[in-house]
């Protein structure tokens, strides 16, 4: 009897094929919306994480802002606004076993080219640090003397500088020895629009000998970030607040979490289309019950049980849901691929488990909603009195 009931459900779907297809299209649209938004969120989060991963292995230690008014201009010679030589040595002692540690001089300094004068970011670094940290020169080489400097790609482009170009910093002439490739957003050194000079030249221009605006740590293992941060704070701030540690991995996590939250909200909005599809299927199933009252009466009069009538209508709703789910899965893969290519710029993470898992999730939700939408009409059809059903016009 079960096979006959299923065969009747298939027949009824075929008889009202156009109506069934239109109902399935509603489910299809809902599945596409949910699956595509889910895959987009996964791919955006993965892409952002990849972009920021190079920054996540860095810690920056700077003077505590409440320590003698640390908000003063960077590069000032007052020890209260900088990390002292002893503080630097303490940080090196704590963190050197976990990665590369280096001190940074930093200031907004005057740069002059001909009659043009403006302020730009200036860093002072040890020569060995330049070669270790800034190992991506697009042209030229590292400074061979104190009056040679590196410049960022943006600074070079904006001012039409090239290797060998000359300009002055705080009335001291310098020559461009090399140009740094664009590094984009960075948690340690923002070099794209900056000038990088030797530590000796910086100290001769701005003072602050052996004192640093910040100390950066490039970790060997990103998993050590929290431990190193806590160790520095516990030892350096034992008596009073002396330093603050900025953990870039936390910032990366916050950004990735924000992207995930936004896309999850967008997926929730997209799921409204499934509710619209559910109303459509409910309406179609109610119409199907109403149109087939006499048929239900005949089936009940020849001994068909209520549960079998119920099963027949549930089968119909399930078939419509399966049709919509299969079509939705196929279109979601095609549309999702091109949608992500346009929105994210690459499909590197498209064919991954975390991305494609949204397809069965969306199909399952669509199919369940379809079946639930058909339950009440199926129950109503099963509860009909056979005699009253046979009398219906």
Kindly describe this structure.
- This protein is an alpha+beta fold.
- It folds into 2 domains: 2-52 and 255-391, no CATH class; 58-220, no CATH class.
- Helices cover 56% and strands 18% of the residues.
- It has 14 helices and 10 strands.
- Strands 2-3-8-5-7-6 form a 6-stranded mixed barrel, surrounded by 4 helices.
- α2 (17-53) runs antiparallel to α8 (248-270).
- The longest helix has 39 residues, at 306-344.
- The two termini are 28 Å apart.
> How much helicity do the residues have?
55-70%
- Tell me, briefly, the overall form: elongated
* Helix/strand class: alpha+beta
Strand content: 15-25%
Gap from first CA to last CA: 28 Å
**How many structural units, i.e. domains?**
2
The overall pLDDT, averaged over residues, is: 84
Question: What is the CA-atom radius of gyration, in angstroms?
Answer: 34 Å
Number of helices: 14
The biggest sheet, with number of strands, parallel, antiparallel or mixed sense and barrel status, is:
6 strands, mixed, barrel
Ranges with pLDDT <50 over ≥5 residues? 67-80
How many strands in all?
10
Spatially, the strands of the biggest sheet line up as 2-3-8-5-7-6
SSE topology string: HHEHEEHEEHEEEHEHEHHHHHHH
